[in-house]
Automatic annotation (TrEMBL):
Keywords: Kinase, Nucleotide-binding, Transferase. InterPro entries: Adenylat/UMP-CMP_kin, Adenylate_kinase_lid-dom, ADK_active_lid_dom_sf, P-loop_NTPase. Residues 38-73 form the Adenylate kinase active site lid domain. It comes from Aptenodytes forsteri (Emperor penguin). This is Adenylate kinase active site lid domain-containing protein. GO terms for molecular function: AMP kinase activity; ATP binding. The lineage of its organism: Eukaryota, Metazoa, Chordata, Craniata, Vertebrata. Signal peptide: none annotated. Belongs to the adenylate kinase family.
C-alpha cells in the first residue's frame, strides 16, 4: 500500500487532500504464507502462487516451460523481516489517518470475504458513472 511511511504521507498531503483511507488488517501468518508461496518467471514477470494459482507443472512456467524462481525477498525469513519493518513504519501513518477520521479498517484472511465491505464503502463515497444511455 501507499503511503507506507510518515514521510510519504506528508509528501502526499502536499499534492492532494485525502478523504478516505483503507487499511486491510491481514494476520501476519497469512501474509507470510501467501508471499512465501509466490514464484515468478523471470523473463516475463508472470507470477504464480503455489496455493491458489500454481503452474500446471510445479516449478515450470506454463507458457515457456522455463524454470520458475523464488525472489530472495519472498523467502519465508525475508518475508517475516519485511512484514515487521512494514508494521513499524506504517503504524504512525495509520495513526495519522485515524486521527483525521478518514481511516476505514477491514480485517480478514480472504479477499472474497473482505471485498464486499470495501466495495460497499467505496460505492457510498463515489457516485456511480452513468452511461450515455442513462443520462
Amino acid at each position: 500500500g501507499f503511503p507506507r511511511t510518515l514521510g510519504q504521507a506528508e509528501a502526499l498531503d502536499r499534492i492532494c487532500e485525502l478523504d478516505l483511507v483503507i487499511s486491510l488488517n491481514i494476520p501476519f501468518e497469512t501474509l507470510k504464507d501467501r508471499l512465501s508461496a509466490r514464484w515468478v518467471h523471470p523473463a516475463s514477470g508472470r507470477v504464480y502462487n503455489m496455493d491458489f494459482n500454481p503452474p500446471h507443472v510445479q516449478g515450470v512456467d506454463d507458457l515457456t516451460g522455463e524454470a520458475l524462481v523464488q525472489r530472495e525477498d519472498d523467502k519465508p525469513e525475508a518475508v517475516a523481516a519485511r512484514l515487521r519493518k512494514y508494521k513499524d513504519a506504517a503504524k504512525p501513518v495509520i495513526e495519522l489517518y485515524k486521527s483525521r477520521g478518514i481511516l476505514h479498517s477491514f480485517s480478514g484472511t480472504e479477499t472474497n470475504k473482505i471485498w464486499p465491505y470495501v466495495y460497499t464503502l467505496l460505492s457510498s463515497k463515489i457516485p456511480p458513472i452513468l452511461s450515455d444511455e442513462e443520462n
